[in-house]
Amino acid sequence: MNQADAGGVSRRKPARSVLRESCGSSTMDGVQHHESWKSAGLGSSCCGGFVSSKVAKSGGVDDQKEGIINRVFYEGSRKAGSGSRRYSLVTYKELPEYMKDNEYIIRHYRANWPLREAFFSLFRWHNETLNVWTHLVGFLVFVVLTMANLVEVPQVADLLGLFTRPNSTIADTNVSYNSEELLLAKSLIDLKNITMGQESMRLMAVPLPAAPLPAATTRWPFFVFLGGSMFCLLSSSTCHLFCCHSHHLNLLLLRMDYVGITIMIITSFFPPIYYIFQCDPHWQLIYLGGITAMGVFTIATLLSPALSTGKFRAFRAMLFSSMGFFGIVPAVHACVVNWSNPQRPITLAYESVMAMSYLTGTAFYVVRVPERWRPGWFDLAGHSHQIFHVFVIMGALAHYGATLVFLEWRDKTGCGN
């Protein structure tokens, strides 16, 4: 009896050691996939199925003890892996339904990751890495452009001048004192010509009338565009980085991403319409009010969770494109009004590059090429959404160049010139 018991114990120890190896091989970098085990007929735990088969053969454990061992080993392996686990990448088939968006990208997905792991995946290689970094780099570029232009704003320049103004004031005071002493010495030496000297000094001191400079054009429409671009790019990067956390956060971030795209389109209209029609405020109101109303309608429509799915990809692209095509009307109007303006060909070139960039990127977004042609080949780099991001950056930079031309033209001409 004792020998049999001893034999049973000796047989169960190797089973448990083999069990740990089996559990380790049944994980993907520490993440358990219970549904896969259930479909394979292994019950709720791979470890449980292994213990059942091995211990049943040894004949030393009944059903109740077997269930206890299953739960102990499963909970122990789960807790041991939770502290130092490296979350694995999964395939499209293993994704939860709410994350299935592009069936032509097959591997390297993140699913149900904690926020901390999702954040540090910024430095890991997965199929969202370039989606995050393309717009994150674009955001940083626009931050630099915004800071560079803020330095040239008169109010900011005056603020910076406070650090150097005291030194220049002291220098001017010293110069004035030296000038007064010099004039006093000359008056004492040449008393006979004091009247003529004073008259000549008075004439020399009268400043010549300076040519009036045109008032600098207001910059707020320009910074509205820069702010809208930064918000869009940052919300896009945030969405792609943290959308793998949970269903609730995924929906929230997708809505924020769509709002960011809409805001970028709206704010892109502000600089050209404001500066071109600066002398016709009623046209400013009509065009800016029209695009803002379209943007509000687009945001209200896209806040529906059902419209955030991949099924409505073409519908979302249609809404965004319709906002862009609205710009054809003020563009034609501006060309007619400013046909003789020498800056017209330059601005048209910039804006044409912007329009072609946005339309080309949208086409890639809808058609989903090249991954449609070779599923699995472009999972990490080169798929349609990454290309779409690059074209968005190109379009925004082209519009930035056109806005600088508008500003320079308005600063020189003003209204009525």
UniProtKB/TrEMBL annotation:
Q: Which GO terms describe its biological process?
A: response to hormone; response to sucrose
State one molecular function term (GO).
Answer: metal ion binding
InterPro entries, A to Z: AdipoR/HlyIII-related
Q: How does it sit in the membrane?
A: Multi-pass membrane protein
Positions bound to Zn(2+)? 240, 385, 389
Task: List the Pfam families hit by this protein, alphabetically.
Answer: HlyIII (PF03006)
Q: Which domain of life is it from?
A: Eukaryota
What Gene Ontology cellular-component terms does the record carry? membrane
The compartments listed are:
Membrane
Region annotated Disordered, chain positions: 1-30
User: Where are the membrane-spanning stretches?
Assistant: 130-151, 222-244, 256-277, 283-307, 319-340, 346-367, 387-407
Q: Which UniProt keywords apply?
A: Membrane, Metal-binding, Transmembrane, Transmembrane helix, Zinc
**What is this protein identified as?**
Heptahelical transmembrane protein 1
Q: Which organism is it from?
A: Trapa natans
High-level lineage: Eukaryota, Viridiplantae, Streptophyta, Embryophyta, Tracheophyta
